[in-house]
Amino acid sequence: MIKNPKIALAHDWLTGMRGGEKVLEILCDFFPDAPIYTLIHLKGKVSPKIESHKIISSFIQKCPFAEKKYRNYLPLMPWAIESFDCSQYDLVLSTSHCVAKGIKVRDTALHICYCHTPMRYIWDQYDRYFGPKEASLMLRCFMKILRPRLQKWDQASAKNVDYFISNSNYVKDQIKKYYFKDSEVIHPPVDTEFYMPEVKNNESPPFYLIVSALAPYKKIDLAIEAFNILKQPLKIIGTGQWEEKLKKMANDNIEFLGWKSDEELKWHYQHCKALIFPGTEDFGIVPLEAMSSGTPVIAFQKGGALETVLENKTGVFFQEPNPNSLLKAIEKFNCCHWEKNILRQHALEFSPEIFKNKLKQFILTKTNGKIDLSLSFS
C-alpha cells in the first residue's frame, strides 16, 4: 500500500461555475493539496476554493483568442491533455465531459473519472453542433474528416481509466455504448441549503424561466418558438455561442438576462411560474435547483430529467422535441396543483452530503489495499 500518496485532479476547462465545477469543488475538499490540470483557466471565473489550488493549464491557454474561443481548439484538445506530465502521481481523479479523462498516468497509478458525458460533440449531439443548419460548409467538411479521428482517440483514452463514475443512468448507458465500460452512478450534488423556497411568495408568478448555457444541444430554440406562439413572459438566464441567433428568433415577450449572480438566480427560481427544461441533458442540476426553491419543472421526457423530475409531483414532461408538444405540456401544467414541500423534499435526495458520502465510499473502495487515503478522509 502506498503511504502519503501523490494525488492530482484533472478538469476540462475552468471558465465558469456550472455543475461540473461543483463536483470539482468537492474533490478539492477531499484533496486540498492536489494540483488541478486543465486545458484553460480564466482567473476569477471559478470559486476561490478551486483557485486556492495550484492550477496547471495547457498550451491552449496561450493560443490566440483562447479565452473566448477555446472550443475552436477542439482538434488540439486530445494533444493538449496528453501533454501534461503526471508520472509522479499515484492517484488521478478527473471530472470530464470532453477530454479530461484522456490525461495520461503511469501504469501503476490509479485513474478514477467522474464522467458527466462522453464527448457529446462527436457522439450523440454531433448534428446539433455540426449539422447543415448549425455549421458552415467548410466546418462541416472539416469535421467530417476530424470526427472519426476524435472518436477513435476518445475510445482509446477511455481504456486508460481504471474506474468510471457516471452522473446518471443515462450517462451510464452512454459510457457502455461508446467506451464499452461499466460505471457506477453517483448523481451530482445540488446546493439545497442555498436554494430554498421563499415563504412569503403567495402571488401568482408572472413569468416562466430558462437557466441554461445557450448551446445548440440545449434546445432553447424550441422553447423560444413555443413562447413566440404562447405570448407569455419567458426569462432566459445564460449566455453562449447561440446567443445572437436566439435573440433574433425571439419576440418581445422573451427576455435575455445573461448570467446572474447566485442570489439573483435564486430569486428567479423562487418567483417564476415554472422552469422550462427543453433539451436532452446528461443529468441536469438546474431542475433540482428549481425544485429545491419550491418551483416545478416542465421538461423534455428524455435523458437525465427522467431521473430528477417526478411526473405530476415535481413537474410534467413533453414527449416530442417540438414547440407544439411543449405547449401541450404547459397547458397540462396549468391544470395541476403543486406543493412546495413535495418539491423541496425530492430535491433533498440530491443534497451535497449524500453526494459526498457516496463519492468518498467509492474512492475508498477502489483504492483499498493500494493507496492509503486515511489522512485525506480522517
Give the topology.
Blueprint: E1 7-11, H1 19-30, E2 36-38, H2 48-51, E3 55-57, H3 66-69, H4 77-82, E4 91-96, E5 110-115, H5 126-130, H6 137-158, E6 163-166, H7 169-179, E7 183-185, E8 208-211, H8 220-230, E9 234-237, H9 243-249, E10 254-258, H10 262-271, E11 275-277, H11 286-292, E12 297-300, E13 315-318, H12 323-333, H13 340-347, H14 352-367
Can you offer a commentary on this structure?
With 378 residues, the protein is an alpha/beta fold. The protein is built from 14 helices and 13 strands. It folds into two domains: 7-189 and 351-367, Glycogen Phosphorylase B (Rossmann fold, 3-Layer(aba) Sandwich), CATH 3.40.50.2000; 208-349, 3-Layer(aba) Sandwich (Rossmann fold). A seven-stranded parallel sheet has the order 3-2-1-4-5-6-7, sandwiched between helices.
Please supply descriptive tags for the structure shown above.
35% helix, alpha/beta, globular, 2 domains, Rossmann fold, 378 residues, 13 strands, seven-stranded parallel sheet, 14 helices
